[in-house]
Amino acid sequence: MTADSTILQAAVASQNNISNGHPRTKICVYCGAAPGASPAHIEAARALGRAMAANNIDLVYGGGTVGLMGEVAKSLCAINGPESVHGIIPEALVKYERDSTYGTVNEHNHIVPEESVYGRTTVVKDMHTRKKLMAEEVFAGGPGSGFIGLSGGFGTMEEIFETTTWNQLGIHNRGIVLLNIEGYWDGIVQWMDRAADEGFVKPANKNILVNADTPEGAIKALRDYQVSDAIYQLQWGSQ
């Protein structure tokens, strides 16, 4: 077990339970470190943060403070406080995905975001660890926990598809939702239909990745998520 894993497990253990002992609902949000050309993307990120706050849902995300990532975190943190947000970021990305406006520079010349603005942060060594630990928080979360993909680039798309593939392989049973703002993910939705029509994806598995056009709709889709009966029934060890 790495030091990063030990630190995160301690954090998860202290944050996963509410007063009645039930695990808290956790949503991992994948999204861009850019704001996007249309203001609708930023507003959707803020609205998602507000909707999560209204439903008492915690956020785990990539730890950036710029673009859509920062807006989701700030919006939720402003309402429900820093304990509701956990960012996990690789050390190499700190200087690219963080803004110094709300933060200080430490002895390693890294920007440390203000916890009161962006929530708690864990810095890890690599991308694989970041994704693994974000997923583990969701897997340990309460009912309605899952993954939401807001608008983003290659990294966002890769994270969405990896998580979807893990579901298809039977590694986890959490829902994955595309929050489709102004048709941003329409091409992916059309591709899923084509992949099923061409026999590359089982028709039942096409719905592993769900499409929603509002934050409230995305949260509801995670609550109502049903595991496909066509996923692979495989035996996995420790992922």
Automatic annotation (TrEMBL):
Signal peptide: none
GO process annotations (BP): cytokinin biosynthetic process
GO cellular component, one term: cytosol
Pfam families, per the entry: Lysine_decarbox
GO MF entries: hydrolase activity, hydrolyzing N-glycosyl compounds
Stated name of the protein: Uncharacterized protein
Source organism (scientific name): Fusarium austroafricanum
